[in-house]
Design brief:
Radius of gyration: 20 Å
Shape: globular
Helix content: over 70%
Number of domains: 1
Number of helices: 12
Strand content: under 5%
Largest sheet: none
Distance between the termini: 5 Å
Number of strands: 0
Amino acid sequence: MTLIVVLIGLAIEHFIGVTDEIRRLSWFDGYINWLERQLSRQVYWDGPLGVIITLAVPLLILLLLQWVVLAVFPPLMMLFALAVLLYCLGPRYLNPQIEEYIEAVQLSDFTQAEYLARGFAIMEDDHPRTRQAVMETILLAANQRLFGVLFWFIVLGPFGALLYRLNCVLWLRQYEIHGNYSDACRHLYNILNWPVARLLAFSYALTGNMVQAVEAWRKTETNSFLVNEEVMLATGLASLDHLSPEEEITEEEFLDALHSLQGLLNRALLLWLSVLGIMTLSGWLG
């Protein structure tokens, strides 16, 4: 079932698309604000327990709905899982965004290109100023919008996909805040991204320049939860045959690098789907 749901979800995302309005998580922001007003003065709130409480209610509601669906009409479980996956992907599909950005760069429409570049950023106030920064922002967006959600959906089903997405929202809210609660949000975010970052690094190496990617991985890897982004960025950029992670590039090289990056992300996704298909046929996954 997992393979079928993922394939249908990606097909819907690619050919039809899901509007941002459907994927709005403003309810979660309101819920967090309410919780903070109610519990912020409690000793247990400022730490890992506060993060667990924040995530527990929506995740328990999800598990309850899943149990109801299974109890009432099990065949609907596939539709339920598909709905959760589509809700957690994004908020926008990256591939058409990259194509729009490439077209703006080709037309030398720098105003539009700058506007579209901000659309790749994970944080709203992050404006990638250089070509190198745009490439890095796309790699980070691919992890958070697509690969991270897919990995945890494959491992834990709808629960995993929603856990990852809600933790991303928490991480964004707490990114520049200091305190035990914020530290716990960041620790959970790093833990959830640790396996994703390594699988992506391996995927980039297999589908790109393996020699350069492995060397970049070796230089950045410290077996720490704190180097996830460094591993993803270094291996992703090094996998692009003609691009060095340390150098600035010309406009012509930039366009070539964007096409190569788009191809790398698509090949990595196909690799993940192929492995998922093999695991499903082998009976490892339902």
